[in-house]
Amino acid sequence: MTARIALSAYALCALLIDPLSAQSSRFAPAFTQHLPQSYMPQFVPPQAGSAATPIGRALVTSIALADIGFGTGVRFGNLGGRREIFVPLPQGADLTVTDLVLTLDDLSAYEAKRNLEVLANDRNIAAIALDGRATNRVLRIPLGKLKARDGFIKLTFVYAGAASQDRCIDVRYVGDSLTIRPETALEVELDSGSLRDVATIAALMPREVSIVLPSRRLTASEMAAGITVARALAANGRRPVFRTGSPDAAEKVESDGRRRWTRGAVVIGGKDEITGAVRDVSLVTGSTSPGTLSAIRVAGLPALLINDTDMPLRAARFFAAPSLAAARGIAEASIGDIGWSRVAPERLTFDELGLNLASVDVFGRADFAISIDARNLPPNTQAARLMLDIMVAPDSSGEKAVVSVFVNERLQASSLAVSGGPTQIDVPLTGLSSTTANVRAVIQRRSAQGDCKFEPQGYPAQILGSSTVVLTPAGKAQDFADLAARWSNGLEIIVPPRAADTPEPALTLLAAITGPLSNEGAPIKVTFADRDVRPTLPFISIDADPPAGATPRVRFDRGRVAVADRGGRTLLDVGGFNAGAVLQLIEASGQPGLWIKPLANDGALPTPAVMRLDRGDVAFVDHGGLALAMSTARDTLVRISYPDQIGWTAIAERFRVWIVGSLWLFATVAFLFALQRMRRRRPKAAGE
Questions:
Q1: Architecture of domain 28-191 in CATH?
Q2: Angle, helix 504-517 to helix 220-235, in steps of 10 degrees
Q3: Do residues 345 and 378 lie in contact, with contact meaning Cβ atoms separated by under 8 Å?
Q4: Is the peptide bond before 379 cis (omega within 30 degrees of 0)?
Q5: Whole-angstrom Cα distance, residue 513 to residue 502?
Q6: CATH of 198-334, one of 3.30.379, 2.40.50, 3.30.310, 3.40.50
Q7: How confident is the model over 217-237, as pLDDT tens digits?
Q8: Rg for the chain (alpha carbons), in Å?
Q9: Considering only the top CATH level, what class is 347-466?
Q10: Which helix (H) or strand (E) holds 263?
Q11: pTM above the 0.90 mark?
């Protein structure tokens, strides 16, 4: 009897303790999984060079997600997700991937057990516990001398989590977000002595690159080559800087003796100028000739030499062409004339555009995004509509899915998903003036919530490569973004002759403009001219006066120029903007273009590192970038005014209230006077 009572008491205690333990486990902090040392992610410590550490020939560089097109990184949510990324590496080069430097933003509103599994070439390399309280968390994951497979390193990120033992909770209540930031990079180790070919040097250059110009007056072809190279570097995620004189390729020695390649160099000029006037520069090959792209060494570090002394720009355009990979194993590439003719079809599929079409699993809600860049469309065309083919796998319970499509965060179309085939959605793009159409498809489906027998099941969905972009002929340019279609087949840049003596400011500004608005392979022609310029191609003109025959939107022959609101109050006085420039759309000789007017008395130009022209037809630019962009045709809140010119319209606008009141008073007096006259003229009746 006593044993039976004791057993009952024990069972009662177990029933009381088990719910408490289950509840406490629901709110327990995220666990930390102990991994073997060889696969344990490590926080990146601050590193400094050490004189006692021997320095070897190994050179370290990195390839970040931002360099391969993931400018905003990769985001996960709702306690689940999977993403595969293929990082290209030059084939045939003696290089190995040593580390993955992972940068995370890990946030969660409520407690949950969450983790991130990382795989490289389908091999598990780390499992990371997430606590939901970290931003800019940096971890270093050793990869053990990983080699590329078919020219790529395959990275797979698997995100998972649970907030409760309940299988059918609403995962949205956790409020979790995991972002793999674009700074996440693979560290590549290579033998600096064996890096001797053009294609590998171009592919592995660090993010910071110096474009080195000769210390003399530049020719028109050399200026065009500098802009072409800067545009190509920016398109691949690098930050080009123009320099005159000595190349400054740089490295940093780390505490473990490895040499980190921190700055690359692309030298423009002839062989004799470089080897005779610059220290620590040597040629990999014995000689170079005009129109060649050569591998050189600057202070023992690999660099490139572009010898384009005459038109056409054979070497610079080859550097910007996708066929640069064909120069693998070649230390000096001699290039013939490069033709550039792009046929304009009526439509292009997503496969033809080379878009990255990832699949997602739908757990109640999922979304995926793609970007369509106007620079990659055929010349003189614009995207009129999208014909999307979206495949959504059916739910086993028969629940319908709803597909909604946003373009530049505007809801453009929505439809029920078709079961057993692709859902076709016609998305108009009219009125979306932008160089990039950011398309986001949101798929929503009701799922069982609360306690249930089975865990929630995700079903895949994907935008198919058969989706098409319907093209129409480009109309008249109304916004800066419309120039992308006009500049795809060639661009003429008209600069004053003095720009050849001090080219850095003009080249910096022109590279910042042409990078986002023109395809990296489009030919560029530079013309030196002062007055009476008649462009023969779509153009950019830098001058105090507009090209001959052009009608500018902002007139500088009417005195002081200002930007005012509807009430006439000055918002921006261009007269005090003497360190900047005014950019505006114009048309000259039947060619659309961009006129840049320097506001400084000496014609100095601003040198913004980054600038993106998109909406508007007039822009004000300073050294910090874009100060103001506006449309003189559409904007109703601001307008261009000329305070020194006081016309009848300005007076009427300023005294509009008084004028309206006076007219009303005059009309009232006139009406009363007319009534009085009518009363006096009326014949008097009898007895009056």
A1: Sandwich (2.60)
A2: 50
A3: yes
A4: no
A5: 19
A6: 3.30.379
A7: 998 989 999 999 999 999 888
A8: 33
A9: mainly beta
A10: strand 259-268
A11: no
